């Protein structure tokens, strides 16, 4: 996050400030906390506060409706989402049925993400700090690290998938490179390593310049992605002679059809189970609540219906052409006979994948690591640590191992619903949006969010049974019919358990974080 220090912290005029911050490295975290403590009139802990974790000032925020819209313009049109939606066609849903399934998911997501976004806009804090409200100043590490672990793994996997597209593009441009794609070094060819490391470096360089660069990249990528996907859909439609397979290929009817539709809508929400947690990482710099509502409206229900229409045309058109069901738009791109158009389409897919990775799989672990070691890590350093972990886990081996994807990443993903349920129930139902932001940064035992040694045992007690139920529903063969709804069961049970266990007699105060806030430059 790009930020300026609280009043009283200055930089030496003869020295240059770090990119992403106006504070010189000579200004240590302890000094920042001393200044913040004076401003706040209470002790601010250096183990809980630094420039990237500090709340953002209300004045100077830059995330507008368009900024939020472009987040969704990129993320909704990710290759993974296309693979999922086209999979609904494989399950037997026809055109209108796919649109209904995505529409149901879009309405739910608009509601969930809007309320989640409001939390960030009001408090100005990132998700790890937001988690301190319900889990405690130390217990919040659980929520942020679970979210971060899932994101780091998917960052590596998405970078690998993008490198596959880059390899296709390079071989199309320079056929002689095909020989470099035939060997194997730790599971990747020489060309594969070159492509992966190149994309890895590009992403780390972008993130090194903070959230402002991410905002600009998302704004740049959004229109390109929309135009490219529309162009591919139009090309497929023309190749199919202006006809598509509109009805389901399996002829689903009645109860079975509606079960599949609602399951598709539920899974669509589950895909965003990560994002509904840490959407505040972005909306903490939103200019107003209205900007969140407008950005979400155009970016979620409207954009998702456009996405659904493109999916129906791509999948139905390709099926009409040769009777085959594609897995993702990359299958279509590889079949483009014109080298120039193939290269341009590959470039667009690379721009897309990087945009999705930056917002969905990079920001969360960066804030999680910064929250873990605020004295030693800032946004830039945490980005390099996160990216390095994403490299050394050799993510292509994870992607090629179904057991890892299903049981490890799926198991961690099943925990996200209970986390969301606890956080939302605590913030909206119990506190009614009242937060003492200053106490989120103090480790004094009298602090509102100190609970018991920094951990709220009631939040943990609520999360455990919800997590157990969610994992069982997700993995037990006997509960296969309910598996698509595992996220909802986890979130609902987590929220209900926490509401029943929480101390409802506790009085909540609303205290602004402006005294210790930093000016947002993004």
Automatic annotation (TrEMBL):
It is found in: Membrane. Keywords: Membrane, Transmembrane, Transmembrane helix. It is a multi-pass membrane protein. Residues 1-23 are annotated as: Disordered. Its main location: membrane. Belongs to the purine-cytosine permease (2.A.39) family. This is NCS1 family nucleobase:cation symporter-1. It comes from Arthrobacter methylotrophus.
């Amino acid at each position: 996050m790009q930020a300026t220090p609280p009043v009283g912290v200055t930089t030496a005029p003869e020295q240059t400030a770090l990119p992403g911050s106006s504070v010189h490295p000579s200004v240590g975290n302890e000094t920042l906390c001393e200044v913040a403590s004076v401003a706040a009139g209470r002790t601010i802990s250096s183990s809980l506060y630094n420039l990237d974790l500090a709340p953002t000032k209300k004045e100077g925020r830059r995330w507008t409706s368009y900024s939020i819209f472009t987040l969704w313009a990129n993320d909704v049109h990710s290759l993974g989402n296309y693979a999922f939606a086209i999979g609904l066609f494989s399950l037997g849903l026809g055109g209108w049925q796919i649109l209904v399934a995505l529409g149901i998911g879009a309405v739910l997501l608009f509601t969930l993400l809007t309320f989640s976004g409001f939390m960030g806009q009001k408090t100005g804090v990132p998700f790890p700090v937001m988690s301190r409200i319900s889990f405690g100043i130390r217990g919040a590490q659980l929520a942020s690290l679970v979210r971060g672990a899932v994101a780091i793994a998917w960052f590596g996997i998405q970078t690998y998938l993008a490198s596959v597209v880059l390899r296709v593009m390079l071989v199309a441009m320079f056929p002689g490179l095909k020989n470099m794609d035939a060997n194997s070094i730790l599971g990747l060819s020489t060309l594969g390593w070159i492509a992966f490391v190149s994309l890895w470096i590009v992403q780390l360089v972008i993130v090194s310049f903070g959230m402002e660069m991410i905002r600009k990249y998302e704004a740049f990528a959004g229109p390109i992605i929309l135009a490219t996907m529309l162009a591919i859909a139009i090309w497929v439609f023309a190749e199919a002679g202006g006809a598509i397979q509109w009805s389901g290929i399996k002829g689903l009817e009645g109860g079975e059809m509606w079960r599949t539709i609602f399951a598709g809508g539920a899974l669509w929400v589950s895909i965003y189970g990560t994002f509904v947690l840490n959407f505040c990482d972005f909306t903490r710099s939103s200019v107003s609540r209205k900007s969140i509502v407008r950005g979400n409206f155009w970016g979620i229900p409207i954009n998702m219906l456009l996405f659904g229409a493109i999916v129906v045309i791509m999948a139905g058109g390709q099926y009409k052409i040769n009777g085959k069901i594609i897995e993702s738009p990359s299958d279509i791109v590889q079949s483009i006979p014109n080298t120039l158009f193939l290269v341009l389409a590959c470039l667009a897919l690379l721009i897309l994948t990087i945009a999705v990775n930056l917002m969905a799989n990079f920001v969360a672990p960066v804030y999680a690591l910064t929250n873990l070691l605020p004295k030693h890590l800032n946004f830039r350093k945490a980005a390099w640590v996160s990216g390095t972990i994403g490299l050394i886990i050799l993510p292509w081996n994870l992607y090629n191992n179904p057991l890892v994807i299903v049981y490890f990443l799926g198991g961690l993903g099943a925990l996200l619903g209970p986390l969301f349920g606890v956080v939302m129930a605590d913030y909206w139902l119990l506190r009614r949006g009242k937060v003492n932001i200053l106490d989120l940064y103090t480790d004094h035992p009298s602090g509102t969010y100190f609970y018991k040694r920094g951990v709220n045992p009631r939040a943990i007690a609520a999360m455990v049974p919800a997590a157990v139920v969610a994992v069982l529903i997700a993995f037990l063969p006997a509960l296969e019919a309910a598996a698509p709804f595992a996220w909802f069961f986890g979130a609902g049970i987590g929220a209900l358990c926490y509401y029943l266990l929480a101390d409802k007699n506790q009085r909540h105060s609303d205290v602004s974080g402006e005294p210790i806030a930093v000016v947002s430059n993004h």
